[in-house]
Design brief:
The chain contains 7 helices and 8 strands; from the N terminus they run H-E-E-E-H-E-H-E-H-E-E-H-E-H-H. By secondary structure, the chain is of the alpha/beta class. It has an 8-stranded mixed sheet with strand order 1-2-4-3-5-6-7-8, with helices on both faces. Helix 5 links the parallel strand 7 and strand 8. The relative contact order is 0.14.
Length: 233
């Protein structure tokens, strides 16, 4: 069934695109006007099998970590078709931060500002990949979320290269008292098992797929949807 749905995606009604903006500095002070944030809000089309009240927020910052945006557009499009309101947001990289904590604080503020624009009474499920998982974890440390899905996260903050984090960033210590999952490839599993706090947390669900192609392909789409269903979203 899922295979047929994937093959037929192009022939089905597309999700209704509510807004697509390039916000060159709208949420920045004058020192950050060179940065730009883009977002795309999709609502389910009339052909969707249901309408899910809990929105999904796909967060990335391609100007900071290009890997963070891989698959986000496909994910947002697919899940809108399945009945989810989806906000795909690519946060602009700030030009005037010198520490990792300042960088994460900037991203947290930006993500909070855009998430509020949803004006939906249910806290979102945050989905992120690679470096974007640092942004997501910073956000949920201080803001409500219905769930958290981290795709190919760094095993620890200390393992992140200085090209992304110029100074040491304290390890996250939030409690996983809400639905939380880590998704990775078979090749990534071993290191996460050894070094990742979340992977070692029994309350965190683990989703392992064959390779990076599978993450953004049918296997990844189906496994994520199964997890969302199991969590009641």
């Amino acid at each position: 069934m899922f295979s047929q749905a994937c093959k037929g995606l192009g022939a089905r009604a597309r999700p209704h695109v509510v807004a697509a903006f390039s916000l060159g500095g709208l949420f920045f002070n004058s020192a950050r006007q060179s940065s730009s944030t883009t977002y795309l809000l999709r609502t389910p089309p009339s052909s969707a099998p249901r309408e899910v009240p809990t929105p999904l927020v796909f967060v990335s910052s391609s100007g900071w970590d290009p890997n963070s945006r891989q698959g986000m557009t496909s994910f947002a499009s697919w899940y809108a078709e399945r009945g989810y309101t989806c906000l795909e947001i690519d946060l602009g990289k700030p030009a005037d931060v010198s520490t990792s904590e300042a960088l994460m604080s900037h991203y947290e503020s930006e993500l909070a500002s855009h998430t509020r624009l949803l004006a939906i009474p249910f806290a979102p499920v945050i989905v992120s990949r690679a470096g974007g998982t640092l942004i997501a974890q910073t956000y949920i440390s201080s803001h409500p979320a219905s769930g958290l899905l981290l795709i190919s996260p760094p095993p620890s903050n200390a393992s992140v290269p200085k090209t992304l984090l110029p100074t040491p960033l304290p390890e996250f210590d939030f409690e996983t008292k809400f639905p939380c999952a880590v998704m990775c490839t078979e090749a990534e599993k071993a290191r996460l098992s050894e070094e990742s706090r979340l992977w070692q947390d029994a309350r965190v669900d683990k989703i392992v797929v064959k390779d990076e192609k599978a993450i953004v392909g049918q296997e990844g789409l189906v496994r994520i949807e199964q997890w969302l269903d199991e969590m009641g979203f």
